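Q: Hi! New to this. If I give you a protein sequence and the SMILES for flavin-adenine dinucleotide, can you show me the bound structure?
A: Yes, paste them in.
Q: Okay, here:
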Amino acid sequence: MTDWNAMSDADFRKEVRQFFEAEYPEELRHLPHRPKFAEIEHWHRKLHAKGWVAPAWPAEFGGMGLNAAKLLIFYEEQQRWGVNRGRDMGVQMVGPLIIKFGTQEQKDYWLPRILSCEDIWCQGYSEPGAGSDLANLRTRAEIDGVDFVINGQKIWTTMAHDATHIFMLVRTDPDAPKKQQGISFLLAPMDQPGVDVRTITTLSGDTEFCEVFFDDARTPRENLVGELNKGWTMAKALLSFERIFIGSPSLAQNALGQLESFARGRGAFDDPVFRDHFAQAALDVEDHAALYARFADQLKRGETLGADVSMLKIWVTECFQRITELMIEAAGPDGGAIGPLQVGNVSVDVLASFYKARPTTIYGGSNEIQRNILSKAVLGLPG
Amino acid sequence: MTQTDILSSEQEDLRLLRESARTLFERAGGSERARKLRDAGGGFDAELVRELAEAGVFGVAVPEDQGGLGMGLAAGGVIAEEVGRVIAPEPVVLTIGLSLGLLRRLCPDHPKMAQLIGGEISLAVAWQERVPGGAPADVTCRYAEGRLTGSKAWVVGVTGSQGFLVVAEQDDGPVLVLAEADADGLVIDKRTQADGSSLGELSFSGTPAAELASGGAVSAALAEAVADATALAAAELVGLSERAFEITLNYIKTREQFDKPIGSFQVIQHRAVDLNVMCEVAQAGVREVLAHMDSETDPKVRNPIASRAKARAVTAAKKITRDAIQLHGAVGYADEFDIGLYLNRALVLSAWLGDDAYHRRIWFDAREAEGAAQ
Ligand SMILES: Cc1cc2nc3c(=O)[nH]c(=O)nc-3n(C[C@H](O)[C@H](O)[C@H](O)COP(=O)(O)OP(=O)(O)OC[C@H]3O[C@@H](n4cnc5c(N)ncnc54)[C@H](O)[C@@H]3O)c2cc1C
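A: Thanks. Here is the predicted structure of the protein with flavin-adenine dinucleotide bound:
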């Protein structure tokens, strides 16, 4: 088995780049929507055969065992080449939780199935009354013999209609003194009576998220990960890496590249005002990358990240939004038109980018919540 | 009557007009109706168009001796604001501003005038072409011996319109002609927009069309009608922004997180206040422009202030609808809640007839030219 970490960064980057450029299907590059599994299954099989599905997992569980530095390179190359993340909630979220808190049986059973995509996961955290205030969740799981019995509702569950399993935070002790207590982390199969999935159409007309209803749905007791009523702290423990992932420059960088070729084709750079707006956006992205590198170095040195990592997400998502707004500006009279716009030999779906940028300031902890975190934990402001 | 009496009786007329337009739109189904029409393929409600016509809506800015109400653009703006509030897809600004704006200036006796005022038909206006720079001076669509050749771009209101008012070139200058929607040799390429309406690309190959007017008067009337429509579109955006803000204000008062309404967090309060101020500034600016356009005939004054109105209204509508989504959280990103309809309609109205950056440029260039002339 290759020890990737022993390679030089440059060699590793080259290897990853070559694989993506040679193997990733052109028609799937920079997909404007979240694909159903069937659409990217072929690519997934290739990755799986190469053992590259889970770059961050330790090698003993079938991952690439990359250290932080190599991992960041891997993601950078993935994003540079427009490689879709695929259905990675299993790899990014449940897998690490099982690796860290699961029993040996859970690891032996679930991890290989995540890698092969035999099980496809969705994330059941949010509820109608629990968004930013996630600890307010009400979906209940009660022990009944060998099973948990689940009742309640999840919402905004991305791609639940194309998932076989859901990992969820549920209330297992309604009498706990604090909202954050009495919550457990549970895995549940979705193909059973008592689980109902309804798709929700988004602003852009896509159906990428869903409501999931539980009416006496069951899952075996052994699907509890970690200790009963300790789900909140466990889920929180995994946030650090996700925070840097969500603050990475890639989305904004890709959008900036699209904006540049589109604006050139449209002659928008003839306008000095547009040039200034473009330059502002481009510099925003470049300097964000510098800030990002500072946090990445921290990870590479093996340090854990502090609350200040939230600033990456705020900056880059808002920058991403401005870039997509500039695309609309460059589109002029076509700025309200749906579908790809052809300019010379580039084709850019202006509104698809715009729509994609909107919720980035909402999900993953809204930017208002990130600002609250920064003001309290970093600036030490009272409140 | 004193000057103030005249003013206040005008104000009273506008208030009554606003009330009757609002009642009509609300009775027809408010913003929910916009969703239904969009889902049904992006047309409009012919019955409502007739009702609006009965209330005098389409002829509001047409002089009385030409069969209208003679109330001017200020009254048109009142109606446009109400259209914006319920994001009605009916071709109101298109008809008041562009189609009737052209006909009343060029051929007020044409029978299509009465049909437009009566809500019996609607006519889309094809005046732009996909030429570099987009200047009307570069028009290549030709008219000769009763037939059109060439193409026109960015035509709004193609769905449901009975014909097209086309600005073309003939040997001795510009000409305005009328082509029926089902004319031979007319191909309409439709592109769906964010609000479900279509943007049309027309191409003509020997398409029969009837001449309505020709010569320099056509270019002058076109520029004036485009300015009218631009200012009215600004008013529509003002109404849209106000309603989007009201919906959002209501939401942040009722949505609870962390055991209290999110509107109790100061950061949300300040943003709401900023959006409110933005709405009020836009409303004041746009209404002032419309009133001014009614009393001013010089295009060198009218055109740049129309741009001032659109620039302001687009800036406000973009900010307000986008912040509205943010303040709604995921609910704002889901189509089943109305707020997204406002965002999508704002995208379309902003792109139509020039966005804010475009109009700020026009305004500034006009200001420079004026300064140089003095
Ligand atoms: C495209 C998309 C995909 C998603 N996918 C998933 C998924 O797969 N699984 C899942 O579990 N969830 C998912 N979510 C849900 C997401 O995590 C929530 O939308 C997010 O947590 C915000 O919650 P909310 O939508 O209920 O907004 P709310 O919490 O109701 O917030 C509304 C507004 O109030 C602001 N606000 C709230 N509290 C405060 C405060 N204390 N101070 C200042 N401002 C505040 C917010 O920032 C926001 O602007 C997804 C959401 C979207 C949009």
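A: The longest strand of chain A covers residues 147-158. Let me know if you'd like me to explain how to read the tokens.
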